Description:
Layout: H1 10-18, H2 22-44, H3 47-63, H4 74-107, H5 112-117, H6 120-132, H7 136-146, H8 151-158, H9 162-183, H10 189-200
Helix pairs in contact: 1-2, 2-3, 2-4, 3-4, 4-6, 4-7, 6-9, 7-9, 8-9, 9-10
Amino acid sequence: MTTSGTYPSDQMLVKALRSGVVNAYETLVRDHAHRLLQQAFNRLDNREDAEDIVQDLLIDIWEKRKKLYIEGSLTAYLNVALRNRIFDHIRRSVLHRKAAERLLDRLEEMQTSVLDMLAAKDLSDMLSQAVAELPENMQRIFVLRGEDYSLREIAGALGLSEQTVKSYSSELARRLRIAIATRYPDINRTLILTLIHLLTKN
């Protein structure tokens, strides 16, 4: 792509952008934002998610402009950057959905007396949110444990040591325990530990 106006080439625009020229950034946004938004929307079919992804991408480019080096087409560079962000968004969405499904499956294992004390859907929503706020590796461990992977298999899949997976698992249980205790302060500790066992057991 040949950039219009003050910047007749991508290389000149990128050079100006690295120097902090605001007009260069405005040119990039003007020439590419709408196209990127349309691409993201076509892939996600969700306007809000598409806008968030494109906005984050453009903000990131400005914040990291001093390290921006593009040898080829600026359009191609932006397309790849957008595609990677869309893939990450889809992967996280799938992970969160699996976590929520697993939570509901585990809740079905609880005794009727426990379900009488708690609103199962409310508990599921709260725990799903708690899992979504965990670091990425903890989220992955949560999902993989729910699919009956061993610690060794999880360690291999994530490229971590078994001890690291054990440490993450302990921290995962601790955070879920805190989330339950905060949301349901009247539940005794033994019941909380039972819930955590059901939610995190292999």
